[in-house]
Amino acid sequence: xxxxxxxxxxxxxxxxxxxxxxxxxxxxxxxxxxxxxxxxxxxxxxxxxxxxxxxxxxxxxxxxxxxxxxxxxxxxxxxxxxxxxxxxxxxxxxxxxxxxxxxxxxxxxxxxxxxxxxxxxxxxxxxxxxxxxxxxxxxxxxxxxxxxxxxxxxxxxxxxxxxxxxxxxxxxxxxxxxxxxxxxxxxxxxxxxxxxxxxxxxxxxxxxxxxxxxxxxxxxxxxxxxxxxxxxxxxxxxxxxxxxxxxxxxxxxxxxxxxxxxxxxxxxxxxxxxxxxxxxxxxxxxxxxxxxxxxxxxxxxxxxxxxxxxxxxxxxxxxxxxxxxxxxxxxxxxxxxxxxxxxxxxxxxxxxxxxxxxxxxxxxxxxxxxxxxxxxxxxxxxxxxxxxxxxxxxxxxxxxxxxxxxxxxxxxxxxxxxxxxxxxxxxxxxxxxxxxxxxxxxxxxxxxxxxxxxxxxxxxxxxxxxxxxxxxxxxxxxxxxxxxxx
Amino acid sequence: xxxxxxxxxxxxxxxxxxxxxxxxxxxxxxxxxxxxxxxxxxxxxxxxxxxxxxxxxxxxxxxxxxxxxxxxxxxxxxxxxxxxxxxxxxxxxxxxxxx
Lengths: 486, 99
Description:
The structure holds 2 protein chains of 2 kinds. Chain A is an alpha/beta fold. Chain A contains 18 helices and 11 strands.
């Protein structure tokens, strides 16, 4: 887009320009595709780019000005994480298993974005089946962080975060199971919103851990995240876990004052194993919230430090069950085999899944197997209930909980590949809210001395996305208004 | 240093998970799973007496759709991604030996 100010256009600006006839959807779409072409050799954010399909959709939109005038995302180019099904457009989930898979239907979130006028320009890279924190576990090669290409963009929605951070387009969909939208948002310096479990339909989201998976939004601003959430949220007859509760007007909520809202900081947790500069930027962000009139106080989340192991027990168990469907029969890969059904299943799974997938499937199978179920899976679910109870107790005293999004800024490619446990610790602050089903947002809150972005995470009560977006918007505009670069 | 999972356990789990790791992969999985389980073992120290393991609280205000027949995916579309198919059916290797 012609970024005259040096900053890429927001979805809101594109939408307004398209509706006013100052910009066509085709121009907006072409500009995004051109920008992607420029960035792609450096960051590899995409598994598939669908330029022709996108331009056709844009021209169809431009041919119907009466319709355009009503659409909340008219002509806005968007990218979709490649674990969300797109009818007729290859959807791989970052895996060899689905390298040639062309879904027969759209995910509900995808369909709703398109119905709102958004134009899908491509499918973004991700860790295989969304399991990972660096996008290095993609079977299609790693994505690199546009801020510093020697570093990962985080993961698993690393491609979505990287393309938004590159300025190529304003909104991308991701999915978040234990931090996969928020952590890459933090690493790349964009906004990442994980809605409440049940706020957005999971229909057409390739299942990883069904009690944790949620479709989320990567965007340049809180305002754009609100626009995107507005389009995709709400009940869906195709997903019984999608909540029937009405969807509020998120854009209107952004304008409400934030003074007097209470924010809790679990100090004891933040003291643990956090990079010094991250802690400093987090402390400054809390000071900024206080300066905007919020009441910042300490809270206690005594079980939160168990979130990562609990998360891995629960998520791996659910993954081992969900991934049982990849057996070489109905869709996906079928590898050369010994002629038996079981041999075909095993050969296919062996050839189709990467190392991390196999680790997690093995862990999950172990945790669910006879003799271990009680000690691992059931125990994990009990501690999960305690983690949720901690948040419920905190929310009797405060409206939000603030945490760093990730314990470190973006790490280098390869740095954690040989140490699974180290990789898992990237979810230290994001896994807890996921286990509790709560909505959470990551917003940029400064940079390290090396110029790496740091994210502030705010966690809200069930279904309080409006509150999160409102504080995020105030933080963003307040920080920009003060213009002190903090 | 955490203890590796016994290799026969790895074999048992791999069979249940329909995976066929090579001996080298088995040894590596034994190590890595040992590390991950040692990491997860911290959870055992948490007092969970009186806590139910369910997560019923997770799904709030679910909406049920009316139980009415409606069209589903056409056979051709459903089979379009099948690795092997014929006559509207997916093909798999013979499950039972020929008589």
